[in-house]
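subagent[fold] <- orchestrator: predict structure for attached chain, return tokens only, no commentary.
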Amino acid sequence: MALTTRMWSAGKLLLLVGSLLATYALFAGASMRLALKAREVQVPDLINRTANEATFLTADSVLTLKVDEVRRPDP
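subagent[fold] -> orchestrator:
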């Protein structure tokens, strides 16, 4: 096989591998962006609220409120 033929085949192979990697990167980035965007929710401000107030504020959203009864010291 002549050197030019082998170089032409190597060039085709590199072009194919480069195209496949570019396609993978494009679709991986697009799917990651879509997955992260779909999980975004607005979280209401629950600081200094009672459990009843916080439950009322989260009732309209897709969030569920779970009150942990265990007291922990604030660092």
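orchestrator: received. Logging for downstream: The mean pLDDT is 84. The longest helix spans residues 3-38.
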